[in-house]
Design brief:
The chain is of the alpha+beta class and 825 residues long. A hairpin with a 6-residue loop joins strand 4 and strand 5. The strands form eleven sheets. A ten-stranded antiparallel beta sheet has the order 1-2-9-10-11-12-19-16-15-14, covered by helices on one side. Strands 6, 7, 8, 13, 17 and 18 form a six-stranded antiparallel beta sheet that branches. Strands 20-38-39-43-40-41 form a six-stranded mixed beta sheet. It is globular, with a radius of gyration of 28 Å. The chain binds beta-D-glucopyranose (BGC) and 1-deoxynojirimycin. Beta-D-glucopyranose binds next to loops.
């Protein structure tokens, strides 16, 4: 069952009924000011930091799930009836409803008793504000006397404190109202030099700034007293809960329309110029007034929207594909790329599943996210990499998280997750291959942000690699530390205290738990290091013989995997604290794990045929119609020596769900062994668009990846959870675009190395790479099960192999890639 449809031409998802199984959300903002908005206008906004500069309040885990947001009410003066044109919060039975989630904007339209309304929400580029444009049309044969009420709940900035510290917060709220603008200035009198405002383009019939006055005692958002009465209370907040509501009257003749613009924004003044007149307690509004005035004009709103469209044209113009499969095209060209940009901006901070107050940026998460956006915003990717590397510890290890505002590593989740530093290498090599900017390797980057500790960026990569080599266990495999990619495989934790964090609890000392997964990752990373050193300019930063050293390290790691990481039919997952295998047929549960099957093959292990065998085992034991599950059988009881993984009920999260982040590793591994059918089949199983028709099962948004889909051992097999902020976005993008479609940046040029399903004849793509535009046509020379590109014709000249040589900036290059059968047909 569907709840909407894709409108690819407009790059929108159109939701056709308000009561989706879960809130189906979108993001507003591209730079500093962000908001989450649901299909019924729920959600909240913040400036830069979802916790410390929260503009509007949101109550998590609410009932209904999605309550509180950017609400408006319409009231019919003839009979006093009122409703929300975005359905929530009055939940009126609307004659028509439609929500269009577009790229950084959302439009919700509806009709009730002949009155049509359209609410557009977006954040113009270069601003720290959001625009709401409400259009109302009287479709009745008679005149309509209408009232519009807006409504936002102001947060007291620190969202954590806001939700807990009432003895103070109910006493500090302050506002100013000037003309049609409500200013929220709590704590501005003391140390803050920032405030929020909520402006309206029309003269007001009234306003409210005190929540209680607006709602009335014992009332909720579904029937505020003020709206019911049709008259604002003109309340001024002194403490309690500051709120913003405008009241505008509209008299519309039959067929007549009106437009009301609201602007909700954030502004700062310099510390010594906060008040006007100086010495007063009144906000200095000299700088903000013209901004407000500008964005309240209809023409500015149109221009702002156009600017946003052009921004996304530029972003998405870097890669566009046209394949025989509509789900692939729509995800690669629009939604997956968009989701990658959202993970770039938000990391794991603010979604309907991440409260925005809990987590910093993850070292490994941010490094992997970069793989999905580096081609769209290379300069910002460079800055991000430097930020991440600046938090690296001198040992080469990493804090697991850092704070976006301070850019400092934090000890909240601690360190010693031994996979962390290796992801940085993948990020940096991806960046360099994309841009050819080798200068970044010379950039002076500190350790742990300590002044004086700066070393060339390349040194950070070297220490990342050495960090693994210096921490090998009894089988010659990398020691696992806290947990490798899988945060919940806590082999050294032994936690038996309720509520204790599995990630932070002191590890039992003397561990020699080892990870086969990190071994695979290491082999991949060491290969990338060798290629980097051998690339243009490598000699200027690497030591003589360094490339060989990395290749040898990769080779011996693969040997250790072959000797101790192989279980007979698949790769083992790890060795536990006691040296017992994890992910082995010798175990009762958790006999096979997905992560090492994908990653070891990506790292070149199993070239002797074991790779194929491991992937066959994945197919036999882990693949389900809803994707590849993380482990089988799921753990049915808590196991002290394994930790959090066994804390989840079978089929959920890291215990036997389809953890969407890992599936692309298997897709990539299948391309390594030339199986385009298998790779693409797995791709389609979790492609959200391809799952749209089973939305009643999937339940999360059909336009973005979710972190997890319940596995067959769970009661809700196929149900997705934790949508939007997940490493699944970047890795699925990499798997489909770089490995299945095979358009892959390399040091010396652009590789065109697709591994396609047998049924495809080819596909077309446009890729902007290092300033040149490559128009690529892939065709299969003959049918057949397996084929790889044998030669290219580049601007009419034959080139053997699959590497398109670099073209000068500004050039347009016509590439034909001919795919010829490999292996037995
Ligand atoms: C979640 C993981 C997450 C970890 C650290 C666990 O509860 O299942 O996905 O990485 O917490 O925050
Ligand atoms: C989510 C975390 O953000 C990520 O770092 C981790 O790899 C996965 N969960 C798997 O545990």
């Amino acid at each position: 069952m569907r709840y909407g449809r894709f409108d690819d031409a407009r790059r929108e998802y159109v939701i056709e009924q308000p009561a989706t199984p879960t809130p189906w959300v979108n993001y507003l903002g591209t730079e500093d000011y962000f908001g989450i908005i649901s299909n019924t206008a729920g959600g909240y906004s913040f400036y830069r930091d979802a916790r410390l500069r929260r503009l509007t309040r949101y109550r998590y885990n609410n009932a209904p799930f999605d309550l509180g947001g950017r609400y408006m009410y319409l009231r019919d003066g003839s009979n006093g009836e009122f409703w929300s044109p975005t359905w929530q919060p009055t939940q009126t039975d609307l004659e028509a409803y439609e929500c269009r989630h577009g790229l950084s904007y959302t439009v919700i339209s509806s009709r009730h008793q002949g009155i049509s309304a359209e609410a557009l929400y977006f954040v113009p580029l270069g601003t720290s504000l959001e625009v709401w444009r409400l259009r109302v049309r009287n479709g009745r044969p008679v005149p309509a006397q209408l009232s519009v009420f807006s409504s936002v709940e102001f947060c007291l900035w620190d969202a954590q404190d806001d939700a807990t510290n009432f003895q103070r917060n109910f006493n500090i709220a302050e506002v100013e109202v000037e003309g049609s603008v409500i200013y929220h200035k709590t704590e501005y009198r003391e140390r803050r030099n920032h405030f929020a405002y909520f402006a309206c383009s029309m003269p007001l019939a009234g306003f409210d700034t005190q929540r209680e006055a607006f709602l009335g005692p014992y009332r909720g958002w579904d029937r505020p007293t003020v709206v019911e009465r049709g008259e604002s209370a003109n309340s001024i907040a002194h403490g309690w809960a500051p709120h913003g509501s405008h009241h505008v009257r509209l008299a519309l003749a039959p067929g007549e329309s009106a437009e009301v613009i609201f602007v909700l924004g954030y502004a700062e003044n310099s510390k010594d110029d906060k008040f006007d007149p100086a010495g007063s307690q009144t906000i200095n509004k000299r700088a903000v007034r013209p901004v407000i005035e500008h964005w309240l004009k209809p023409a500015s709103v149109e221009e702002g929207l156009q600017g946003l469209r052009e921004y996304w044209d530029r972003m998405l113009g870097k890669l566009a594909v046209s394949t025989p499969d509509a789900d692939t095209d729509r995800m690669v060209n629009i939604w997956n790329a968009y989701q990658c940009m959202v993970t770039f901006n938000l990391s794991r901070s603010a979604s309907f599943y991440e409260s925005g107050i809990g987590r910093g940026m993850g070292f490994r998460d941010s490094s992997q996210d970069l793989l999905g956006f580096v081609h769209m915003v290379p300069e910002r990717a460079r800055e991000r990499m430097v930020d991440i590397a600046s938090t690296q510890l001198p040992s080469g290890g990493a804090y697991h998280q850092y704070q976006p505002l301070t850019k400092r590593g934090n000890d909240e989740i601690g360190s010693g997750f031994n996979d962390d530093p290796l992801w940085l290498v993948l990020a940096v090599t991806a960046y360099v291959k994309e841009t050819g900017d080798y200068s970044v390797l010379h950039e002076q980057v500190p350790y742990d942000n300590v002044a004086g500790s700066e070393a060339p960026f390349y040194d950070h990569l070297r220490r990342s690699v050495n960090y693994t080599l210096e921490r090998l266990g009894p089988h010659g495999l990398p020691l696992i530390g806290r947990a490798d990619w899988n945060d919940c495989l806590n082999l050294n934790c032994f936690s038996d205290t309720p509520g204790e964090s599995f990630q932070v609890t002191e590890n039992r000392s003397g561990s020699s738990a080892e990870s086969v997964f990190i071994a695979g990752l290491f082999a991949l990373v060491a290969g990338e290091m060798a290629a980097l050193v051998e690339s243009e300019g490598g000699s200027s930063w690497a030591a003589p013989g360094e490339a060989e050293r990395y290749r040898e390290a990769a080779t011996s790691m693969r040997a250790a995997v072959a000797e101790h990481g192989w279980d007979g039919r698949w790769f083992r997952r790890a060795y536990d604290f006691f040296g017992e295998p994890v992910g082995s047929s010798a175990n009762d549960e958790g006999q096979i794990f997905v992560e090492p099957q994908g990653m070891c093959v990506m790292g070149g292990a199993g070239a002797d045929g074991r790779a194929r065998q491991a992937l066959d085992s994945v197919r036999a034991k882990l693949a389900t119609p809803h994707g590849i599950v993380l482990n089988q059988p799921s753990y049915t009881r808590y196991q002290l020596e394994l930790g959090e993984i066994s804390s989840y009920p079978p089929g959920y999260k890291e215990n036997g769900s389809v953890f969407c982040h890992t599936n692309p590793w298997v897709m990539i591994a299948e391309t390594v062994v030339d199986d385009g059918d298998a790779a693409f089949d797995y791709y389609k199983r979790i492609n959200p668009s391809a799952r749209e028709a089973i939305s009643e099962v999937h339940r999360a948004e059909p336009y973005v990846y979710a972190q997890t889909i319940a596995g067959p051992d769970g009661a809700t097999f196929g149900e997705a959870k934790n949508s939007w902020l997940t490493g699944a976005a970047a890795w699925n993008f990499v798997a489909i675009s770089q490995w299945i479609l095979g358009i892959r940046p390399d040091h010396a040029g652009l590789q065109v190395d697709p591994v396609l399903p047998a049924a495809w004849d080819g596909f077309d793509a446009v890729r902007v790479f290092r300033g040149a535009t490559y128009r690529i046509k892939v065709c299969k020379v003959a049918g057949g099960q397996k084929s790889r590109v044998g030669y290219l014709v580049v601007d009419g000249k034959r080139v053997d192999g699959n590497l398109v040589p670099l073209a000068p900036e500004g050039a347009t290059v016509i590439v034909e890639a001919f795919s010829t059968p490999v292996g037995p047909a």
